Amino acid sequence: MSAAATVAGLLAGLEAPDAPGVLAAGAAQSAGEILDAVREGARWTLMAISAIVLVYSVSINTSYLLLIFLATWDAVHHHRRVSFSTEEDLYSNPLTPPVTVIMPAYNEEAGIAEAVRSMLSMRYPTFEVIVVDDGSKDGTFERLREEHNLVELPRVVPDDIPMRGTVLSTHVPANGSTPLLVIRKTNSGRADALNVGINFARHPLVCMVDADSLLDPSALLLVAKPFADDPMNVVATGGVVRIVNDCDVVGGRVARVRMPRRWLVRIQVMEYLRAFLLGRTGWSRLGGLLIISGAFGLFRRDVLVEVGGLDPDSIGEDAELVTRLHRYLREGGRDYRIVFVSEPVSWTEAPSSAAVLARQRRRWSRGLAELLWKHRTMIANPRYGRIGVLTLPYFVLFELLAPVVNLGGVALVPIALWAGAINMDFALALLVASFGYAVLVGFVALAVEEYAFRRYNSWRDLGVAAVASVAENFGYRQFNAWWGLQGIFAALRRTKQVWGVMTREGFSTPGRPAGGKKG
Amino acid sequence: MSAAQLVSLTLALLAGAVTLLGLVIVMGRALHRYRDRRNARLSAGVRPLLLELIGGDSGEEVSEPLIRLATLNRRVWRAVEPGAISLLAKVSGNARTALVRLLEQRGLARDALRDLSRFSAVRRASAAHVLGMLGHAEAALPLVRLLSDRNAEVRATAVRALGQIGTAGAASPIISMAGGRAPFQLVAQALIRLGPGARPALVEALSHDDPAARAVAVEVLGLTGAVETAGALVGVLAGDPSSDVQVRAARALGRLGTPVCLNALIHATGPAHRYAVRVEAATALGDLGSPRAVPALRDLLADPRYHVAHSAARSLSRLGRPAAAALTETIAERAGTPAASHAWEALALQDLQAGRPLRLPEAAPR
Amino acid sequence: MATVLVAEDDSDIRDLIVFKLEQAGHTVIAVGDGASALRLARERPPEIVLLDVMMPGMSGVEVCRELRRHPETAGLPIILLTARAQESDVAKGLTAGADDYIVKPFSPRVLADRVHSVLARART
C-alpha cells in the first residue's frame, strides 16, 4: 500500500513542472486523493469479488439442479423399466458377455476372504475373479490360500499393457472349477496392479472393484446391461457407490440399509447422493460422463488395451482413464458411449474421522487438478465434443475452482461488508444464493432419492437425511474447500517435480536405465 | 422493487420450496407405505386361492379357485394382479395354463390389446409386456406394428413379447431392430425363442447392411444349433468386413461343431486373419471338442501373440488324451520357450480338472 | 411322507413349493437364504433338501457342497432349482453333489414328482 502511494506520489510529482504555482498544495491534495482512489479501488475490488461470488454461487447451484433434473428423468425411466425387464432376462441370456472382475489387494488380510467369497457368489452367468496381491506384507495371500485351497499354476505372463511390477506367481483353486485366479506380484501401486489384472483377464469385459467394497448381488448384471443392449458402442459403464458405514452386513452382503451414526458420515451420504449418484447420472444423460468410480467400473478389455491401461503415475487414475478413453476414441473418430447406471450399487466405507476425510479430499482434488493439467488441450476444444466444450470446462470452473471461490467468499465477504463495499442487502443476497439455494438443492436430491430409489426405510433416517443436507453447508463445505485447496497446491508442487524427472530422463546416458529414481 | 425486497422475496420463495419439498417427501412416503400395506393385506387374503389354482393337479381341483378368483371384486383384484402376472414367468406346465386361463377370464388380454394404442408410452409398454407374458397369439400383428413406436421402451417390450409369443413370421422385422432400435440382447433372446421357423430370415440377414443385424443373426444361428447353416456362417467368418461379426461367427461355428466348422476355424487361426478373430477361433476349437484340431492348436502354442497361444493352450487342455500327448511333445521339443510354458499350463489344467496333483516344470518360473 | 427343507429367496416360488409339497403330505420347513438352510439342516436334518441356486449370501451350490462335506449331512438327498439356460449352474450343482435339478420356470406337479422319486431312490 505504502509503496503504491509512493509511486502514485512520484507520478503526481511529475506533473509539477506544468503547474509550478500550486506545487505544495497540489501535492498534499493529490496524496489524499490517491489514498481515496486506492480505498475506492479496494472497495471496487471487494465489490467485484462479492459480485463474482454471488454469480458463481447461483450458477453452481443451478448447475447442480439441472444435473439433478436430468438424472431424475433417467431415474424415473429406470423405475418404470424395472417392471418390464427383469434381471432374470439378462441372467438367463446366453449373450450376456462374460466378465473378469479384478480386485487389487494390498494388506487386506482382514477382509479379503469375505470380499472374494462375496464376489464369487455374484449373480452373473459367466465370470472370473482375479485378485492381484500387490506385494502385501501381511497374510492376504495366506487367507486366500486357506479359504480356496490354492495351488500354484505357472502361467506365461501376458504383455498387452506395459507393467512395472514383476509377477511372482499365479495360483488357482485346487478344485479346478471355482473361477478364481490369484496373482502375486511385487508392490507397484493400485493402477499397475489393475494393469496386471487386465493383462491376465480372459473375458471381453473387465470390472474393477476395490477389495474393501461390497457389491449388491445383481450389481454386475445391471452394470453389464448397457454392453448387452448396445455391444457395438458401449465401452465403459460405472455404477453407484453408496456408503456402508453402520449398515447391517450379513455374509458379505448389505442386508439392511441404515443411516450412519456419525454426522460427518451422514453428511457424506447426502453428498454422495447429490454429487455421485444424481450428478453422474445427469452427466451420463448429457453424454459427458467424466468420472467412473474406482470402486465399481466396467470396461471393454480390448479398448483398455488400446489406450494402454491405467496410468500408474496418476493420483486419480479412474477419472484419468475415462478422460483418456474419451480422448482416444474422439481422436479416432469412433462412435462410443460411456454410461452411468444409477441402480447397481457398490457399498464402500466412508472416512469417519476428519483426518482421514481430509486426506481423501486432498487426494481427489489433487487428482482432478493433475488430470485437467495433463489433458489441458482437451479443455474447451470442440474436437472433443461435449467432454471438451461442456464437461471439462465445467470441471475447471465448478469442481477445481470451487474451493478457491468458496473460501474467497468466506474470507472476503465479511471484510467487504465491514469496509462498506457492499451493503447488508447484498450480503444477504449472497447468503441466500450460497446457503439457501444449496439447501434447496439438497432437498431436491432427497426428494429424488425418496421417489426413485427409496433405500433408507425408516422415518428417522429420512429426518436425519434432511438435517444432514442442511448441515452440509455449515462447516463441512468450508473444510472441504480448504482440503481441496491444499490438494490443488500439492498438484502444483508435483507438476514441477514431474517436469524435473522428465528433464533428468532426457539427460540419462544410453545403456543406463532412465528414471530409476523417480521423485 | 428494491434490492432488499428482492432478497426477502427470494428467501421466502426458497423457504417455501424447501418446505413444500419436505411435505412432498413425507406425504409421498406415507402414501406409498399405506398403499403397500393395503395391497399386502388384500393379496394375503387371496394368496391361498392363487396357490390352489397353480398348485392344483386336475381340472376339477382348479375349477373352484378359478371361479372365485375370476369373480373377485376389482379393488382386491388390482392388488393381486401384479403378483399373478409375475408368477407367469415362474411356473410352467398346467400351473401356467391355469394362470393364463384366469388372466384371460379377467379380461387382461382384451384390455392389453386395447392399451397398445394408448397415448401414454408406459401404458403401451405394459400392455405389450402383459401380452407377451400371456403368449397371446392374436397380439402378434399389432405388436409387429409397435416395433416402429417412437418410444424406445415400447419397442423393446414389443420385441420381447413377440419372442414370447413365438410367431416365426416376426423374425425379419425383429432382426432389423438390432442396429440400435432395440437392445441387442433382447433382439437375440426373442429370435432364439422363435425357434427353427426363424432360420430362413436369419440366413438372409447374414448379408444385411447393418453389422448389428449380421451379428445377431450369427449369434442366434450358433446358439440354436442351426447346423444346416454352417456353410453360410463359414462364409461370414471368411469374408465379413466387421471383425466383431467375424469373432461372433467363430464362436457360433465352435458351438455348431460340424466338420466344415472345424476346417474353417483351423483356417481362421492363420496369420492372415485379424488378431481378435484368431484368438476366438482358437477358443472355439476347444468348444468344438474334436481331437482333429490338436495338430493346429499345437502349432499355435508357439504363436508370438500371447492370446492366440494362450487360447490354444486352454483349448488343448479340454481335448483330453490326444492333446496331452501333443503337449508333452511340445514341452520336450521346445523346452525353454514360451510355447513350452503354455503347454505346461495346459497340462496343469488337465490335472486340475481330473483331480490329480499338478505336473509342474522342474524350475517353475518364479 | 418326509420332512423337506426348502431354501428359496423368491417368496412366490417358496410359497408355491410349500403349498404343493404339503398338499402331497410332506412336512415342509422353508427358509429364504442359504445360511439358514445350512444351519437348520445341521440342527435337525430333514429327509430331503430343495435348494435354489441363486440366493443372497450363500448360493445353493455352496450349501450343497457344505452339506456334502460333513458326515452327518453328507447322505442327504439334494435337489437344486436353477434358472433356465444356465448350463454352467447345472454342471456346478452336479459336481457339488446334487442328486437332481429342476429348471425354472417349473411345473409344481413335476416338482412334487421329482421329490417323490429322489426320496424313493434314497430310501432303497
UniProtKB/TrEMBL annotation, chain A:
Record bears the keyword Zinc-finger: no
GO terms of molecular function: glycosyltransferase activity
Assigned keywords, A-Z: Glycosyltransferase, Membrane, Transferase, Transmembrane, Transmembrane helix
Transmembrane regions listed in the UniProt entry: 48-71, 392-420, 426-448
Coiled coil: none
Keyword Cell wall biogenesis/degradation part of the UniProt annotation: no
Pfam families: Glyco_tranf_2_3
Superkingdom classification of source: Bacteria
Family per record: Belongs to the glycosyltransferase 2 family.
Protein name: Glycosyl transferase family 2
UniProtKB/TrEMBL annotation, chain B:
Pfam families assigned: HEAT_2
InterPro entries in the record: ARM-like (IPR011989), ARM-type_fold (IPR016024), PBS_lyase_HEAT (IPR004155)
Protein name: HEAT repeat domain-containing protein
Annotated signal sequence range: none
UniProt KW keywords: Membrane, Transmembrane, Transmembrane helix
Segments crossing the lipid bilayer: 6-31
GO molecular function, one term: oxidoreductase activity
Presence of the UniProt keyword Transferase in the record: no
Lineage: Bacteria, Bacillati, Actinomycetota, Actinomycetes, Streptosporangiales
